[in-house]
Amino acid sequence: MPRSLLILNSGSSSVKFAIYPATARPARADLLCEGKFEGIGGTVSFTAKKANGELLAHEAAVDASTHQEIIAQLLKWIERTFDGLEIAAAGHRVVHGGANYAEPMLIDDKIIADLTALIPLAPLHQPHNLTAINALAKLHRSLPQVACFDTAFHHNQPRIATTFAIPRALTDDGIRRYGFHGISYEYIAEVLPHVLGPELAEGRIIVAHLGNGASMCAMRERKSIATTMGFTALDGLPMGQRCGAIDPGVLLYLGEQKGMSASEISHLLYNKSGLLGVSGMSNDMRTLLASDDPHAKEAVDLFVYRICRELGSLAAALGGLDALIFTAGIGENATPIRSKVCAGASWLGIQVDEDANAQGRRCITKAASRVSVWTIPTDEDLMIARHTWDLINSH
Ligand code: ADP
Which of 124, 170, 212, 242 sees the fewest Cβ atoms within 10 Å? Predict the structure, then answer.
């Protein structure tokens, strides 16, 4: 068994992982296995499969409830399943790198302290990212660990794109737009020349990362110039359970007139809003698309409407549009959502090819379409594996 890289994406209710050999810079074809622990907070289930989809593990109820216990179980399972496999390094998705971390870092005590200080900016994700790092450090003291930040890809956006119109001292204090989903956008930027061709790839591109969390990013020359998420991962599009852009006056009203505490408002915006809040039914796009309930339909319509509005805004930031990319769970799989967004964006010069869209082809627009639209699967784990490989081999 080769030395391997363990890639971890640790969230509030799930821990996802992937294992790549550490023998060469990882490519998708090298993937050894991937899997997830789901349902943290209730009954935790575990599944793992090989790259070809062959099931390696499927346990409906695992004897572990905390992140620490889950990481310990995972290490034991790896040991049992891959005889003699040695983990050479771990790579982590870390949602917030703040103003200082613009590229992946080898983790040390100072970085852990800095990232801990950023927890209030990403309360839904950052604590769980850090728990995985700390749990692994406890179990595997000398293991090199790498943090890859969701904010890093947006780090060099023009200052005008990151500034709120608030007093300058607050901006200087770090209250600005950061943007997220950067590991996914970085992956898409890396594959764009192979999919779109080298010339179009450098053009005015908007990527719609539509998963349970959702955002959009405007790229020119494959660099981020604007994005819909801001100071936190709450801004921009409505998401599974998050509200997306909201008039800040609503928050003042909820606090001052409705007597809600800050933590109640936070819970409302992060956990009770978005598709779940509007539908009153589910945060899962599959459930909503399959439902006849008018509230489910309204949730879907609002999601599409906001994507179309943001498309106009990001196209304005780019001074036009050459290509639109759909990615992540909804972007890659939800044919009707792609179709509705393309219909709403026909004014931008998009002519969707409904057959190509239904067949899930890479390019889903007609040959005559001035702006081409593409579906590209994202691969955040692979991006993290590559950064981890690069960092452990540069030291
Ligand atoms: P995250 O990584 O942010 O948790 P994903 O990228 O896995 O989320 O996306 C999850 C979303 O993708 C869910 O809303 C799910 O319903 C949606 N999704 C997955 N497959 C499909 C499908 N075939 N049709 C419609 N939506 C889908």
Answer: 170
- Ligand 1 neighbourhood includes 373 CB (under 6 angstroms): no
State the closest ligand 1 atom to the C-alpha of 240, by its place in the atom list counted from 1: 14
pLDDT at 1 over 80: no
Which of 135, 127, 117 is closest to 94 using CA atoms?
A: 127
Q: Please provide the average confidence, as pLDDT, over all residues in the chain.
A: 95
Q: Which of 234, 228, 372, 249 is nearest to 306 (CA)?
A: 228
Kindly give the distance from the C-alpha atom of residue 334 to the centroid of ligand 1, in angstroms, as a whole number.
8
Q: Are strands 45-50 and 55-59 parallel, antiparallel or unpaired?
A: antiparallel
Averaged pLDDT, 205-227: 97
Concatenate the DSSP letters of all residues of 130-193 into one string: HHHHHHHHHHSTT--EEEEETTGGGTTS-HHHH--SS-HHHHHTT-S-----HHHHHHHHHHHH
- Could you tell me which of 211, 187, 209 has the C-alpha nearest to residue 27? 187
Give the C-alpha distances (Å, rounded to integers) separating 170 from 85, 113, 166, 167, 173. 49, 22, 7, 6, 5
**Closest residue CA from atom 19 of ligand 1:** 329
**Can you read off the two tokens belonging to residue 187?**
């992956």
| Distance in angstroms (rounded) separating the CA atoms of residues 295 and 81 | 46
Ligand 1 atom nearest the C-alpha of 209 is 6
Tokens of 330: 């909804």
β partners of residue 57: 48
Atom 3 in ligand 1: residue holding the nearest Cα: 212
Write down the pTM of the prediction. Answer: 0.95
* Ligand 1 atom nearest residue 214's Cα: 3
Residue 335: which pLDDT band, with cuts at 50, 70 and 90? very high
Which candidate, 51, 314, 9, 301, places its Cα nearest to that of 149?
A: 9
CA distance 200 to 203: 5
pLDDT at 123: 83
Asked if residue 284 has its Cβ within 6 Å of ligand 1, the reply is yes
Give 43's contacts (C-beta < 8 A, 6+ positions apart).
60, 61
